[in-house]
# Entry
Amino acid sequence: MKSYTIKELAQKLGGDIQGDETLVISSVATLENAGAGQLSFLANSKYRAQLESTQASAVLISPKEIDGYSGNAIILSDPYVGFARVSQLLDTTPKAAQGIHPSAIIHPTAKLGEDVAVGPNAVIGENVILGERVQVGAGSVVGQDCILGSGTRLWANVTIYHDVHLGQDCIIHSGAVIGSDGFGYANERGQWIKIPQTGGVRVGDRVEIGASTTVDRGAIEHTEIHDGVILDNQVQIAHNDIIGENTAIAGNSTIAGSTRIGKYCIIGGNSAVAGHLSVADGTHISGATNVTSIIRERGVYSSATIAMDNKLWRRNTVRFRQLDELFQRVKKLEKSVPTED
# Structure
């Protein structure tokens, strides 16, 4: 088990110390449940009451919250970011795979870098290139002509179709499918004619793709996921989408085809963005929002109605349907009222 003294952690975080700098920390926990040898954090003042009763050996805390607290602490401007960094230092997550399992199927043309691990029943296809320290979990498939950058991890049962490039230090969770066909069809007198999806997928560095998320390949050109993007579980990225760097998309959200999402955007869960649109850099879309037009200016955008009593919701739904009629009536009344000169 990894462990660090408070002094060592403070040096890594660039924080100041209050209390005993020799205390050893081996794990992290919440203020409410922490015990000896654990580090907690206060990032929201509404949990201040828990700070007074916590059994944590030390806490991460901001300068504005340290007043009145006499316990062991590492003081830094953003305790939550500090918590994330300490969590990485103390991470006990096992590897997705270790060594080359005898049941793995690796095509003779595949090229494997140093310290590559391929788990049981995984399949590595023709002309695949796996960079140094790549881990391919049990049952995963990496298709023909794929490239996986160094340090990238595929957990169990990930499917990577042909001509997909993943950058360095990516994490792909179980059940994710990257490079499946997009929704491309022409209709001839009621008959659907499939359009072969001949583009690929290009994923940048430090991208994390959640469990059961799907990223479709491009119809002609590539679908692009840029550096630092986070896709939560069960997200749908359609063909030829471009997701800008460091954007985060929460679970159950859908981005329709040929849409460009800007850099540093946050899209809340269960949201939907229609196809052939663009969303400005730095945009924040609230959960369950339907985006049906171009967003040219950064800001916070919302569209979902709040939960309410079903009877009230039904009445409001009827009134919503009457809005246009009401608007026309108001407009007519306005014309009938004399205006002052």
About this structure: Helices lie at 6-13, 48-53, 63-66, 79-89, 310-321, 323-336. The chain has two domains: 4-89, 105-301. The two ends are 83 Å apart (CA to CA).
